[in-house]
Amino acid sequence: MSTLPLSRRAFVGALAALPFGRHGLAQEPPPPPSVLYRRAPPPLTAAGQVLNVMDFEPLARTALPPAHYAYIATGIDDDLTVVRNHAAFDHYEIRARRFTDETHLDTSLQLLGERWPSPLYLSAVSGMRAFFPEGEVAVARAARSRGTCQMLSSGSSSSLADVIRAADAAPWQQLYPTDDWEVTLGLIRRAESAGCPAIVVTLDGRTPHRVNETLLRAMRADSRDCRACHQNNSHDMWLKAPLFAGLDVGRVTALEPPDQSVAWFERLRGAVKRKLFAKGIVTAEDARLALQHGADAVIVSNHGGRNEETLRPTIECVPEVVAAVQGRIPVFVDGGIRRGTDVFKCLALGATAVGIGRPQAWGLAAFGQSGVEAVIDLLNRELTVIMQQAGTARLADITAACVQRASPA
To answer: Residue 404: its pLDDT value, please?
Structure first.
């Protein structure tokens, strides 16, 4: 265990520590270089006892088999982009105000014709039965109980129909378009026929040779037989996810096409009849292209640091993307959000809404539906508190004037 003087965010932000909970490892492998600290899980028996979102992480690590925990924890190479996504929020300070009227505090948001109780939504997170038996269905129930929008992964381990029944609403459908256009069309038609109001195309998954070292270390140490869940020991999403069922995936070799050009995006725009969101935008150049070629929203995301080791945190990408689209379409952001203050900072820099990824998986693994609900509740409560401290009674009051760049140490 490191004895270096580390900030709280530095040591709890390192998500790549390998698990050694009740499932156990015969011998713990050496941790990746980015692991700074491993906390013991708090002695809790109910989601409502958890004090903050980060306390769900060690609970999930204890509850899950090693490879399943490492799947959600892993980044690329040294996992530094994962860590920086979280740590970069410390680059911004919030300016507190005193002479303000906060008699009626309102965190609600009108977005795409709907009223949200807060600016939070649940991002797509692969196949969630790896974390809890009910998987995405439990998440959908939590989303329904909290009035929160759910984005469903193409790799969901629950069917779209089951998720819609649990949520009493169709989710945003995240799309891995694959390298077979006919499969792409099949996925879009299936989602739109089910009533999904938006297709969220992921543009940052074109990494067939990525090396998720944290995951590989845990897989080598995990003694379970993966074939019990993965047919023919295959982890290819298109061979097991319900959304692909009935489609001819015989020619699919990758989740994204090698030619992901503007022309390809225009073709996709022509195929999608509902809203089309571009996920994975981190530069002004790509934000402008997405806007010019028909995107209804952009999502600032680096896939939680899982697909690229660029070392550039998403919060640092928000200002240039916001400036590029000039208010013409919404700008969403995900990556590293662990506190209500993080949500506040995203909004102050111009984001419209904020997606929650790993924390919902931690809550799900630890307590099922109630864990996801607790994650949402904690972030919303903390957002309310910081809005009061900053003198912002409404989301519209949260502007760039509410934050400042932190002074160098």
So the answer is: 98
